[in-house]
Write a structure and sequence with these properties.
The protein is mainly β. It has helices at residues 72-76, 218-222, 257-260, 304-308, 418-423, 425-428, 471-474; strands at 5-8, 13-15, 22-25, 35-43, 50-58, 67-69, 96-97, 102-113, 117-119, 121-125, 128-132, 144-149, 160-168, 171-177, 187-198, 202-205, 223-224, 241-243, 250-256, 266-272, 278-285, 295-301, 319-326, 329-330, 337-342, 352-357, 363-368, 372-384, 398-412, 433-436, 456-461, 480-485. The protein folds into four domains: 5-81 and 102-109; 121-185, no CATH class; 208-344, Immunoglobulin-like (Sandwich); 364-485, no CATH class. The longest helix has 6 residues, at 418-423.
């Protein structure tokens, strides 16, 4: 029986929402009841300990006998996200590590088949039982076998699955204790499972792979410090994004541990005036060593309110840039810089700050600065109570049995460029959207007593369509969007 070989793997880093294909081959795939055995494990970056996510069996393909397996749905269940808009950090600890968006994993693999070998008697080996064979057998230590005894009236517990813990040319010992002795016992071993090899470690993250991304290696562009020079933040927005003074915001990126452990790794904020004159430069470092062989997810503060907490002044500032930095060098490859423009326009309306999960599993932010329409939708169930013959004025006949109150908002953005508008398709189909309370005043007209600046309130997008627009066809562009809160308003009759 030949061992299984690994003949195809995914990239080091892959989105978990689409297939992550591993290909296996075995020259003996045509033997009886053959299957490839796959075991999926997550790997802890620091201790490198494994956590078992289950064993899976796949049959060989009819043509060529290969086995194809994708663990993406298994691993997707291990992923989440972190929305921390108020993160500030410090001048020497300027990034926060984030473990929810990313999962490190490996796969053990082997095979299973039916050897169809009969044993002629039992043997004793220390405190364990074993079996003897009249011919050479294929078993080795750590094989998992299935035993089917002929006589089930004695030592019935020998039957079923067991692990081989020792062997000779014509005998094996299994991990079951000796039972009743003195009689010849025969039977059949009708299954052999052997897991013999392990893949290298790989990563999945809570992102998406689109139809035209087949074959695209996300590692090359989205892991900072790689040999291929990937230095992109986890966002599709590359334009100068508007942000108001005193607003929270964070960004996210992935980086090799070897790179982020270098001296003076960090970022620099450059501020500019309206004449594009540079006003200030502020540098922050990350003085911490991470596992060298790991990919790490980091959050960095990018909002005006976050950076102001680090001493960045926005007095007379028109725009600013955020550069990742290693030593004295800026990482200036495409998309390596985040661009922000201070929006100082006056408005008669209060700004609604939206955070939404983008296609990389990180969060982007958007301001809705024009009219906000707030509506309550109330759905009541009533019943009619029969009044007694001697009822008093004030006794109720029609009575509310229960009611459900949903809270809706219609949000309107300011006018924007064609490019910025069309980026917002990600907002409309985002699975995770929040309204950020910037100043602790709350987001609703409904009375509440626990409003805290930086609170994030889950909402659900109600729009089911998004039209990509152009200046030529549509003229001035803005987005009107309807949402409802991800929680109901509590009343005395729920």
């Amino acid at each position: 029986m030949t061992n299984t070989t690994l003949s195809g793997t995914p990239s080091l880093l892959s989105p978990a929402n689409a297939e992550v294909w591993f290909k296996f081959d075995n020259g003996s795939y045509s033997v009886g009841q053959f299957k490839y055995i796959i075991e999926v494990y997550t790997v802890d970056d620091n201790s490198v300990t494994l956590s078992d996510l289950g064993q899976y069996k796949i049959p060989p393909r009819p043509s060529g006998g290969s086995g194809l397996f994708t663990p993406h749905r298994i691993l997707l269940s291990q992923l989440g996200y972190t929305l921390d808009p108020t993160y500030v950090g410090s001048s020497s600890f300027c990034f926060a590590t984030e473990s929810n968006i990313l999962e490190r994993y490996s796969i053990n693999y082997g095979f299973e088949y039916n050897p169809g070998i009969t044993f002629s008697d039992t043997i004793i080996s220390g405190t364990s039982v074993g079996f003897t064979f009249s011919t050479l057998h294929p078993f080795i230590v750590d094989d998992v076998i299935n035993i089917n005894k002929d006589n089930k009236n004695i030592n019935a517990y020998y039957d079923g699955q067991a692990r081989v813990i020792g062997y000779g040319s014509y005998s094996i010992t299994i991990d079951k204790a000796i039972g009743v002795t003195g009689s010849i016992e025969t039977g059949l071993i009708n299954s052999l499972q052997r897991v013999h090899s392990q893949t290298d470690d790989f990563y999945v993250y809570n992102g998406t792979r689109q139809y035209n991304d087949i074959g695209y290696d996300f590692t090359s562009d989205y892991v900072v410090g790689g040999a291929t020079g990937g230095y992109k933040f986890l966002t599709n927005i590359t334009t100068e994004k508007l942000i108001r003074e005193s607003q929270y915001e964070t960004a996210q990126f992935l980086c090799y541990g070897t790179y982020s452990s270098q001296p003076n790794f960090g970022y620099t904020v450059k501020t500019f005036g309206s004449a594009n004159n540079q006003i200030g430069t502020y540098s922050f470092t990350y003085s911490y060593s991470n596992p060298s062989d790991a990919i790490i997810s980091y959050i960095l503060p990018t909002g005006t309110k976050n950076l102001n907490g680090l001493g960045v002044s926005f007095s007379s500032v028109d725009r600013y840039e955020i550069h990742l930095r290693s030593g004295s060098s800026y990482l200036t490859q495409s998309k390596a810089i985040l661009y922000r423009k201070i929006d100082s326009r006056c408005s008669n309306y209060s700004t609604v700050r939206i955070a939404y999960m983008n296609s990389f599993g990180a969060f982007d932010y958007m301001n809705f600065t024009l009219d906000k329409k707030e509506t309550l939708s109330i759905n009541r169930s009533e019943y009619k109570k029969i009044l007694p013959y001697n009822y008093s004025i004030g006794d109720r006949g029609q009575t509310v049995l229960s009611q459900k109150v949903d809270h809706f908002y219609q949000l309107t953005s300011d006018w924007m460029t064609e490019t910025d508008y069309n980026y917002l398709a990600e907002l409309i189909y985002s699975p995770e959207v929040y309204i950020i309370d910037e100043d602790g005043s709350g987001i609703s007209s409904v009375a509440s007593y626990q409003n805290v600046a930086g609170n994030k309130y889950p909402v659900i997008i109600m729009d089911s369509n998004f039209e990509y627009k152009t200046y030529i066809r549509n003229g001035l562009l803005n987005l009107v969007m309807s949402v409802k809160t991800g929680f109901e308003i509590n009343t005395q009759t729920q």
